[in-house]
């Protein structure tokens, strides 16, 4: 598994400025919700059928690796599929 720095570098390397801002904003909001609500499981799950999540993050190559570097794991057993996990890094 790649480190967070490696995964983020891979994702951002091929993006233009607007795309970089967008993906970093999405990541910020995901992590901010976890920080604000560390004991609430719903903020540690990302639904793969969520339009905002798909359009602003999953559309980019290497985004799966980035999510894994943050401690999220894909759970294919769910109907629509989603990522579940806790940020394994100290925030």
From TrEMBL:
Gene3D superfamilies: 1.20.58.2190. InterPro entries: PUB-like_dom_sf (IPR036339), PUB_domain (IPR018997). Residues 20-82 form the PUB domain. SMART domains: PUG (SM00580). This is Ubiquitin-conjugating enzyme E2. It comes from Plasmodium falciparum (isolate NF54).
């Amino acid at each position: 598994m790649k480190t967070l720095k490696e995964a983020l570098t891979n994702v951002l390397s091929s993006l233009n400025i607007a795309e970089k801002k967008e993906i970093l904003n999405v990541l910020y909001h995901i992590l901010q919700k976890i920080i604000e609500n560390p004991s609430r499981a719903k903020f540690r799950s990302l639904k793969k059928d969520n339009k905002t999540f798909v359009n602003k993050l999953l559309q980019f190559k290497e985004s799966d690796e980035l999510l894994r570097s943050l401690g999220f794991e894909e759970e294919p057993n769910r109907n629509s599929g989603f990522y579940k996990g806790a940020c394994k890094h100290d925030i």
